[in-house]
Amino acid sequence: MTVRAPITIANSGAVWRPGTAVESKAYGRALLALAEADPRIVCLGADLTGPTETDLFRDTLPDRFFNIGIAEANLMCVASGMARSGDIPVVNTFGVFATRRSFDQVVLQIAYPRANVKLVGFMPGLTSPGGPTHQATDDVALMRSLPGMVVVEPACGMHVAPLLAQLIAHDGPAYMRIKRGDLPKLFTPDSLPPLGKAQVVRPGRDGWIIASGVMVTLALEALDALAEQGIEAGLVNVTSIKPLDTALIASLAAEGKPLLVAENHSIIGGLGSAVAELIAESGLSLRFARLGIDDVFAEGAGAPYLFRTYGLSPAAIAQRFAGLAGRS
Amino acid sequence: MNSPHRLGLEGAALADKALRLRRHVVRMVAPIAEGYVGQGLGAADILAALYFNEMAFDPENTAWEGRDRFILSPAHYGVGLFAALAERGALPVQELAQYGVDGSPLEIIASERLPGVEATCGSLGMGLSVGVGMALTLRRRGSASRVYVLIGDGEMQEGETWEAVMCAAAFKLGNVCAIVDINDMQVDGSTKSVMDMGDIAAKWRAFGWNTITVDGHDLDALLAAFAAARAHVEGPTVLLADTIPGRGVTALEGRKSHFMKLPPDIAAQALAELEG
Questions:
Q1: Of the candidates A186, A211, A185, A207, which has an alpha carbon nearest to the alpha carbon of residue A198?
Q2: Judgement on whether residues A310 and A217 belong to the same structural domain of the protein
């Protein structure tokens, strides 16, 4: 059995190994802790209390928990009305319902008035086994297009609490997509950069992989495979998709080395598009690719199957990067 | 009820306010020669009853926390709301001349760019939901403020309306009062011809609302209905207000047109009648 060297996480003192420990219900606990300190925080949901980890909130602060029923259009507007009256509503549902199901309401009653509402969408991309009805593969594209909307996705269970605190401290609308259930413990809590800044996980000699959410863990796996081929790719974790750390990405692009974006989302409109827009307008020339769901609808199946089938596996990341680096 | 910012006008004084709102509406639409004049005239009595009798409202501070909230869900009626805000003193009357002018916050579809507009609706079905949210927070903070939401009868075809109706009843929001402007008019014709909603009162009752049918042009009846709504603390109240589009202007009254022509001769005739 090959013993792989641990990957040191830049600026955090932490290391990552395959099979790293996981954090359970980090979101549910973080939300409750923040709410206990701030009476303006109210928790809204639409019949998905257990699946959105808000059962803890419901049982502890029942007077501030509002189950709106299976009615997402109403849910979003109710949240807007509460925010307009001084509360900080945190709206919990699946990513598909927080975005495409209720988009007009989110646009007009949350984004347009810059209502202080925090939207939390579980089961991003192919982390849902539920097929196109439950797989939020276009949520970043939708939310990124809205003026003033903050869009984030944590890669690490330890980042969930500080990230949620950042969103609560930010006076305005925000959307967090977050994997349901366990999240890996990759980094220390204090390694989370502020909104608008990205985290250099590992510096690279031969170019960069820019990843978000669950793709960060898979990219870490890919770094191993690439190292075996003598390729030293760097890795950047983008938690804050909007605002994007344009200064960092521009500086990486200016190196002129291969740049691969890996995201658990359609290649259209998400992080890859955001980076592509930046590069295209920078006048720089470099080898660039977007790795994500390749403009197709997926299907209902287990996550390992889906990530393999739709080209989001560590092997696919490694192969794509090696191709960009001219080593395939 | 004893708010320093609640005018409580009745009788001739209130009727005069309604008349003034109608004059503003015609004057605002006249330069454009077409617009939501039918709706503005039709809702003038409801708006007068709210802004000059029923609602606590501080024209010096439209964001005053103790105010009652009014949400105009069919924001197309902005012409009527702007008239009410100006006549109530929240914006200078001469500002009404900016209605629909490029760059002006008095947009044809009312936007909260104008202080006093509580939410930007007009993508129909949202207003009552926003009102439910406001009412939940006001109640949990012990506020005496009430939430009034005007919705259109065609708007009841939007599913979200019924999500909000269900929700307000389930949460027993006695601080919510909806007013449905039943003018039997939508873009494609009479509401009944486009999508007949059957017994509207029975539907609201079945959803658990205190349901009051009222003549939307009878100011005394409107005030009595608002008082009854206020007294009903167990849950939300809806006023099903029968109105006539273009009410108060002979040439326009009863004409069913979503975006009504108002040529100069008719506008002049209307103003003469309203100023008579």
A1: A211
A2: yes
- Dihedral angle, C-alpha B253, B92, B145, B12, nearest 10 °: -50
Regarding whether A221 and A72 lie in a shared domain, the answer is: no
To the nearest whole Å, the CA of B148 is away from the closest chain A CA by 13
- What is the domain partition of chain B in residue ranges? 11-275
Residues of A in contact with B131 (CB under 8 A): 81
Q: Which CATH number fits domain B11-275: 3.40.50.10490, 3.40.30.10, 3.40.50.970, 3.30.230.30?
A: 3.40.50.970
Nearest to B119 among A68, A82, A109 (CB): A109
Q: For residue A69, which residues of chain B lie inside 8 Å, CB to CB?
A: 163, 166-167, 170
> What are the residues facing A94 on neighbouring strands?
A122
Among the partner-chain residues B112, B134, B159, the one whose CB lies closest to the CB of A85 is: B134
Output the tens digit of pLDDT for each of chain B's 276 residues. Answer: 556 699 999 999 999 999 999 999 999 999 999 999 999 999 999 999 999 999 999 999 999 999 999 999 999 999 999 999 999 999 999 999 999 999 999 999 999 999 999 999 999 999 999 999 999 999 999 999 999 999 999 999 999 999 999 999 999 999 999 999 999 999 999 999 999 999 999 999 999 999 999 999 999 999 999 999 999 999 999 999 999 999 999 999 999 888 999 999 999 999 999 997
Interface contact A281, partner B, CB < 8 A: no
Q: How far apart are CA B97 and CA A176, in angstroms?
A: 44
Nearest to B38, CA basis, from B252, B275, B267: B252
Which tokens belong to A32? Answer: 């409750």
Instruction: Among B126, B129, B137, select the one facing A85 at the smallest CB separation.
Output: B137
Asked whether residue A196 is assigned to any structural domain, the reply reads yes
DSSP A138: S
Q: What is the ipTM of this complex?
A: 0.96
For residue A216, the enclosing domain spans 7-20+189-323
Q: Are A298 and A264 in contact (CB under 8 A)?
A: no
Is residue A47 domain-resident?
Answer: yes
**Number of CB atoms found within 10 A of residue A38's CB:** 12
Domain boundary among A184, A204, A226: A184
Residue A274 Cα, gap to closest chain B Cα (Å): 29
Does residue A152 share a domain with residue A281?
no
CA distance B265 to chain A (A): 38
CA of A6 vs chain B CAs: smallest distance (Å) = 50
Q: How far is Cα B238 from Cα B162, in angstroms, rounded to an integer?
A: 13
Last residue in a domain, options A126, A155, A184: A184
CB contact under 8 A, A108 and B123: yes
Task: Verify whether the Cβ–Cβ distance A77 to B170 is below 8 Å.
Answer: no
